[in-house]
Model the fold of this input.
Amino acid sequence: MQGRAATLVLVTVGLVASGCSADSGSEAEHKPPRNSPALDKKVAALEPGMSTDNVEAWLGEPFDENLREIEPGITMLFYGRWRLDFEDGKLSRRIKYSPERPIRNDRGVEGQKERALDRKVLSLKPGTTSMATVRSQFGRPVTYEIVKNAPGKEVALSYEWWELTFVDGILVHRQRW
Done:
């Protein structure tokens, strides 16, 4: 009797384990929620130059079902707040938009506010200012772009009309648009 119970337990455990590990569907059926740390990690793991097919295999179908070919050879896929840009079918950019701030097409801020932001950004010292310092002073960026993964992880943060580029968490470049 004890041998039968042990066999039954082993068979049950085996069935549960095989059900959990079996491929019960595609990656698209198991994609993370629109805006989650899991999605952020998956997007961060993408390598520049990956094909649209490989990206879709990794992330599933885009949340916005339309593949937007904005011009010949240039395609955008949208996953939650992430926009993935492809040139000639190869991943070229990963941009994450902030939920609180709209995507801006113009500078929209005049006079004193503009000069105050310019002074604040120009006070940042390339080579010594950390991304953590910038984020604590400026808050959530309008966009967050992973330019390049390791080695030398490169990230660009946008604040209004400024783009700040960091390598391994240290500011290396400021550019005003």
About this structure: The mean pLDDT is 75.
